[in-house]
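Predict the holo structure. Ligand: fe (ii) ion.
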Amino acid sequence: MSVESCTRFLRVAAEDPRIRQQMKALTGVEEVIRLARADGYDFTVGDLRAASAKIAAEAARRQAAAPRDADARRDVDDRRDVDDRCDVGDRRDADRPEPAAGRVYHYEYDLDELPGFAPIIDELPRLKIKPPTVDLARFHEAFREEDLASTSLAPSGPEYRAWRDRVAAEEADDAGGAGGVRRDFHLINLDEHVAHPGYDDYLAAKTRVVAALEEVFGAEVRFSGSMWYPPSSYRLWHTNEDQPGWRMYIVDVDDEFADPEHTSFFRYQNPATGELVTLRERPRMVRFFKIEQEPDRLLWHCIVNPTDRHRWSFGFVVPEHWAERLPERS
Ligand SMILES: [Fe+2]
């Protein structure tokens, strides 16, 4: 096990088309370690952090030494990522409207209505897994009604901020204690569970889904997260501002909701008006939204499954031009 082995793997992963493609389906560090081990590279999470930092520092040094060359190289790399049929390289910074009351911040579709998504529907049974390595009893013990209730508060308001500050103080007091559980993340990240018999089938399905989506969008697509929301689960208010860009989520549940007024939902705060927008969910849907970094454009959002259904969501980083490949929305 070593940083050197990891560094070698990361360099190969950047060049080898097969590994590069597989890496687009991975979001968990344990997944990367498992994939590398299959190819004879052996390293730990700590090694991966150290090797990534080393490679990033080298790249930064190279760019500082020869900014023009680096820009040119990155440009070439970007173009390599894009399918020949769709040259979108110059459109990335176009169309950046100011926050406005009438602006649309999300788009939703039924999975079944989207052209090219049939192969993805076929993969859903292999994606919607419940890894046996998840301790559901322990998971349910971590549920807190007051945390769930915070999703009804406007994140820009004083009540939410007071609650958040109190929780932060409690978590600081608890640091190093027996707790250590993230209160804002009461759900299961499937990509943190690689030591179960179904993982290889799950990974193969994720890899096929990336290929199918790249066919749809004619550009690079990668997973951003694969989440299982068991009954009474939630992801509290957050902005994802460190990962800007368009996000696509495929959302599905294990059965229809009996009551359309009592469903899982995605909620966001309209950056222009402050209004809370609640998007109720149904089986097999697709949602697009854009994560921005500027303070006045942050998209505060949260996800809640207050029902007794199981919900899954599979997130992807999709190209800026995604809408050109899908039917127009009214
Ligand atoms: Fe998010």
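The first strand starts at residue 106 and ends at 110. The chain has a mean pLDDT of 88.
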